[in-house]
């Protein structure tokens, strides 16, 4: 399993609690407003090896960390070793070029203690003459907000075309600014030679659980029908493999699939872009959600693999399925979600990205509310204040047969258990629990 490899895999949604068990399986909640924007900015460049290949290496790191304790130093070294692999997950068969389209993607690293960091990457061709190699600017942060960091990377790229030296004051200014609360804006002053001082406004979306997500990415590539097959497989914690060539497509679509599970969290191996040297992840008998570049399709299909759902994001089709995906979700609720997704599909151009996010998220949250929203009234509270969930009574309370059948499977998943464990700990007055 890839978890051992620099602990570089994680669940990619805001988890409700810190992990138990193996590193890399689960991660603690995001840091909140008022934190540092980022921990590091690293530049990863391709360096030629004696055998003529290119190997990604960190060529710059800001800030440099001094006075670290021994444990922190080891942790930092492991983090810095893993980063190049995820900045160039597509192997080392590179050749210098004169033109290259910038791309933006992200990856996730999990520390031994289960805390999680996100790497936001912009791969670009540095300005210059003649042939040269792309490099990656990677911002490591424990904050999940893809839109915000894309905007920061736009600024980094703009400055890179002038000179590396112009990037540092900007990043220093960013590091000294507190991360805004949802819906709030932070303004950063930045000086660029020949342009003078610029004011850059960075605003966080109001709905914090959707700020790492673009559901539009999924709707553009897959029919609502297929999205529901994928969602059904994810609710039963199966193995999911997504294929596309572009790293940005893989990372966007996988973040979106994981976000469909809100308020639950994918609690297993999660690698939005699997580096070439970790392709045997797909032999893993445990659940996983991974993205693989299309060029590795043959290699993946040759692996001895347990049942998995393999989705081609380029063609918008399923390459391999278990076969029962149509039957997993209760029919009536499935049809309601289809209607809802089709409605957004027909309005594609009228809605902003944030509106699409909200509408899609609401349809899936509504599904969970209808099915398991009564969980709070089936937690029995003891005198000591600790609760215990009454699973049988909970399932029995569901009138519809097909809903009960699904719920009986869903309560056995890791994501439901973790959600309930959290609920048993916090005796809060629940709505609908009168």
UniProtKB/TrEMBL annotation:
UniProt-annotated stretches for the region Disordered: 1-25
Single annotated GO MF: guanyl-nucleotide exchange factor activity
Protein name, as recorded: DEN2D protein
Annotated Pfam families: dDENN, DENN, uDENN
Protein's UniProt keywords contain Metal-binding: no
Keyword Chloroplast among UniProt keywords: no
Keyword annotations from UniProtKB, A to Z: Guanine-nucleotide releasing factor
GO cellular component, one term: cytosol
UDENN domain segment(s): 39-430
């Amino acid at each position: 399993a890839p978890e051992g490899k620099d602990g570089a895999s994680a669940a990619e949604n805001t988890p409700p609690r810190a992990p138990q068990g193996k590193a890399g399986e689960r991660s603690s909640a995001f840091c909140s407003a008022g934190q540092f924007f980022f921990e590091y900015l690293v530049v990863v460049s391709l360096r030629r090896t004696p055998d003529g290949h290119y190997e990604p290496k960190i060529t710059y790191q800001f800030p440099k960390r001094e006075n670290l304790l021994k444990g922190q130093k080891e942790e930092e070294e492991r983090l810095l070793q893993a980063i190049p692999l995820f900045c160039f997950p597509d192997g080392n068969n590179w050749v210098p070029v004169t033109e290259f389209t910038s791309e933006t993607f992200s990856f996730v690293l999990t520390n031994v203690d289960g805390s999680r960091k996100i790497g936001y990457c912009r791969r670009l061709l540095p300005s210059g003459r003649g042939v040269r190699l792309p490099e990656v600017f990677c911002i490591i942060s424990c904050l999940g907000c893809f839109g915000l960091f894309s905007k920061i990377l736009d600024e980094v790229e703009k400055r890179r075309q002038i000179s590396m030296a112009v990037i540092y004051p900007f990043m220093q200014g960013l590091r000294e600014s507190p991360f805004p609360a949802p819906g709030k804006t932070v303004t950063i002053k930045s000086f660029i030679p020949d342009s003078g001082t610029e004011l850059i406004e960075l605003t966080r979306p109001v709905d914090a659980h959707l700020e790492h997500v673009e559901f539009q990415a999924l709707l553009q590539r897959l029919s609502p029908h297929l999205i529901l097959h994928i969602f059904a497989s994810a609710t039963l914690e199966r193995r999911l493999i997504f294929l596309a060539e572009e790293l940005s497509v893989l990372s966007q679509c996988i973040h979106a699939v994981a976000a469909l599970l809100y308020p639950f969290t994918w609690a297993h191996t999660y690698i939005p872009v699997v580096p070439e040297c970790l392709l045997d992840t797909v032999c893993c008998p445990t659940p996983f959600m991974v993205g693989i570049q299309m060029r590795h399709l043959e290699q993946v299909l040759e692996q001895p693999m347990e049942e998995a759902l393999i989705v081609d994001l380029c063609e918008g089709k399923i390459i391999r399925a278990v076969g029962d995906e149509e039957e997993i979700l209760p029919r009536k609720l499935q049809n309601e979600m289809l209607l809802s997704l089709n409605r957004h599909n027909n309005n594609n151009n009228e809605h902003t990205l944030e509106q699409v996010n909200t509408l899609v998220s609401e349809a899936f949250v509504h599904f969970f509310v209808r099915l398991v929203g009564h969980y709070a009234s089936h937690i029995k509270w003891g005198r000591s204040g600790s609760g215990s969930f009454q699973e049988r009574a909970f399932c029995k309370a569901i009138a519809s047969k097909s809903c009960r059948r699904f719920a009986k499977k869903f309560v056995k998943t890791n994501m439901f258990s973790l959600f309930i464990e959290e609920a048993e700990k916090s005796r809060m007055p629940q709505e609908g629990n009168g």
